[in-house]
Amino acid sequence: VQLQASGGGTVETGGSLRLSCTMSVFASRFAIGWFRQAPGKEREGVTNIRLRDATTEYAESVNGRFTIGIDSAKNTVYLQMSSLRPEDTAVYYCAAEDLTFGSTWPRSSHYDYWGQGTQVTVSS
After folding, report:
1. Residue 31: CA atoms inside 13 Å, Cβ hemisphere, count?
2. In angstroms, how far is the first alpha carbon of the chain from the final one?
3. Are 66 and 49 in contact (CB under 8 A)?
């Protein structure tokens, strides 16, 4: 399974960005998570979606501002980010977890497939 993340960039506070994660294998047993890591901080789970039924989960810090969704025609999971804040600045990663043995989100320990990171910078 290969994942390709794209869509990062620099925006001002209050702006929006859309990240995409394109998968080489789009199977219902997977969940796709977005994680982020800011300099000097631990990686944290941002949001997660189960491809089987589109069930979503969000970190409290982004709930109501970020939306995760599926574009199955393009084998893509997107992350629409709105009302961005400087504290959202980080490298964002998408990752896939095989749900055969359950979900570990927001922990990333069982996400075995990772895309390359994409930088999101929110200026104040």
Report:
1. 25
2. 37
3. no
